[in-house]
Structure prediction request, 162 residues.
Amino acid sequence: MHLKNQKDFLSGLLFMVCGVSFAWGASRYSIGNAARMGPGYFPLVLGAVLTVLGVFIVFKALVFETEDGGRMGGWAWRPVGFVVLANVVFGVLIGGLASVGLPPMGLVASIFALVVIAARAGQEFRWKEVLLLALVLALGSYLTFIVLLKLQIAVWPAFVAA
Prediction:
C-alpha cells in the first residue's frame, strides 16, 4: 500500500473516526425509522455518511497520484487553540459555572465572546469587522432560536435579566 496523497489519507481517516464515533454514540438512543425518527436517527445517519465519505477519500488517496504527494505540514497550533478555547468559553458562559460563582451570561454575551476569541485564530483581526459579525450572529441566533423555535435559552446575563 503506497500513499499517493498524505493529506487526503489522514483527512479520510478523521472522517471515518468521527463517523464511527457518531454512529456508536447514536446506538445508545432509540433510532426509530424515517417516518418516526428517534433521538439516535440523525447521529446514526450522519455517522454513516461521514464514514462513507471517509472511505471514498481514503480510496482516492491510495489510488490517485498527486504532484507533491499531498504532504502534511506542521500543525497550526495557534488557530486550533483559539477555536477550541472559543468553544469552551461559549459553553461556560452560556451555562454559567456554579463552582466558581459565574452565572449564565446568556446567548448574546456568549456569542460575542465566541466570535471575538475565534477571530483571534486568523492572521488579521479587525475589531470593526469582528464586532459586526458578532452582532449579526447574535441577532440571527436570537431570531432563530428564541423567536422562531421558541427555545427557552437565556438571552441576557442572569444579573441583567433578573
Observations:
- Residues 6-63 form one domain.
- The mean pLDDT is 90.
- The chain has two domains: 6-63, 77-161.
- The helical segments are 6-26, 41-63, 77-95, 106-119, 127-148, 158-161.
